[in-house]
């Protein structure tokens, strides 16, 4: 029961000031599940989030919750609502995932972090964090069917970090700070392609 209350509080935190959907009182678990499916189908995700809270509050042991968490995960991921997508996936993993599903859940979290990183040459902390997560995944799940995808994300992120280091190195050299620059000196692989950023964002980079 405490877990369910905590879940509802967290959802409210993520939703912030979103409008409340008009949910009729007294609906059965099946009716709420059907309403949630309809809202997702119509891309009314704020309403769908509220329906899940209603389901959790009135039917905390409903078997529909498991499927609805995954449904909302996929829906928010499709809409690039990465924080909510990761939140629902995390709830699914903690409460319902089998041992065999854990590598899939952890891979999806890595993929979300990768997709959410959209500003090349910024926030090196996120790049390093993603690299660490990929390395840990490969250690924990070396035989995972998703190891190829994780390796691909790892290599793309590693290359992005190299280009970022190169940018920082050149900036320090331009400022004649050679000692500081040494830390960032790196070798860019031949025939590699630099991370692409839109022309209108380039004015904000070095």
From TrEMBL:
Membrane-spanning intervals of the chain: none
Ranges where the Outer membrane lipoprotein BamD-like domain occurs: 28-181
Keyword vocabulary terms for this entry: Signal
Protein name, per record: Outer membrane protein assembly factor BamD
InterPro entries noted in UniProt: BamD-like, TPR-like_helical_dom_sf
Organism expressing this protein natively: Caminibacter mediatlanticus TB-2
UniProt keyword Phosphoprotein, yes or no: no
UniProt keyword Cytoplasm present: no
